[in-house]
Amino acid sequence: MQRVVQFSSGNVGRHSLRAIIGRPDLQLVGLHAASPNKIGRDAAELCGLDEPTGVVATDDIDALIALKPDCVVYTAQGETRPMEAIEQMSEFLAAGVNVAATSMVWLVTPRQADDWLRLPLEQACEAGDASLYVNGIDPGYSGDTEVHSALSLVTRARSITVQEIFDYANYDDYEFTGRSMGFGMTADDETPMLFLPGVLTTMWRPGPQSRRPARRGTRRGPSAYRAVVRRDANRMQDDDGGTRADGGGAVRG
C-alpha cells in the first residue's frame, strides 16, 4: 500500500482527495491546506465524505515530509504562484518523496519547459532520487491522448482541431480564469497577466523556445510572467484553488 499526502483540497484537490481515500491500494497519511479555515479539519469533511479519516489538514510541509510518504499529489494552483509552487514541490522531491501533480502547465512537455522552472525541479529530483510527473485533462488527455486515440480510428487525417468550450462563470478560480484573462477589469487597471508580451507563448507555445533572456529592459516571457504573478499573489487568500487538471509530462532525477 502506497502512503500518500494530498496537497490542497480546492477545485481539483477535493476530487483527488476522494479518490485517494476510496482506493484500497492507497493510504492517505497527510493533507496540506493553505486556508486558515481548512487547517485542523478532517480530510473527509473537506471533500464531502461522511466517515472521518483521522487525517487533518495542516500547512506544515516539514510535518508532512516527516510522515515519510511515498508520493505527494500536488494539485494546488501553481500558475499564479510559480516560484512558491516550485519551492514546495522541490522540498518534497529533495526529501525523496515522489510528486504527481496537476499544476504548472509548462511541464506537459518538461524538455520544453524554461530553465527557471525545469532546472530547480530536476536538481531536487536528483538530490532526493525522486520523480515528478505532471498530467491531467487540460492539457493532457484532451489535447494529447484523446487526439491520438481518435486518430487511430481513421485512415487519413487532413487537419486536427481541438476546441475547449467551458462556462467559467461559476468556476471558483477567479485569479487565474478571471483577473489574469482581464475579466471584470477596466482599462485603468494593471495589465492582466495573459496580456503581457510573451506570456501566452511561454505557457502554451507549440514548440521549443529560446533560453535567451530579453534585452534592453524589455520585460517579456518568463520574467514578465514572474513579476505579475508575484503582484497577483499578494491579492490571493487561498492558494489551493487548483486548476482543471494541467500537465502531461515527467521530470526524473
Description:
The model is unreliable at 208-222 and 227-248 (pLDDT under 50). Strands 3-2-1-4-5-6-7 form a seven-stranded mixed beta sheet, sandwiched between helices. The protein has helices spanning 13-22, 43-46, 61-66, 82-94, 115-128, 137-151, 174-177, 199-204, 221-233; strands at 2-7, 26-32, 57-58, 71-74, 98-101, 131-134, 249-252. It starts with a strand and ends with a strand. It folds into two domains: 2-137 and 241-252, NAD(P)-binding Rossmann-like Domain (Rossmann fold); 174-233, no CATH class. Helices cover 34% and strands 12% of the residues. The longest helix is centred in the middle third of the chain and has 15 residues, at 137-151. The radius of gyration is 19 Å and the shape is globular. By secondary structure, it is of the alpha/beta class. Helix 4 (82-94) runs parallel beside helix 5 (115-128). It is built from nine helices and seven strands, in the order E-H-E-H-E-H-E-H-E-H-E-H-H-H-H-E.
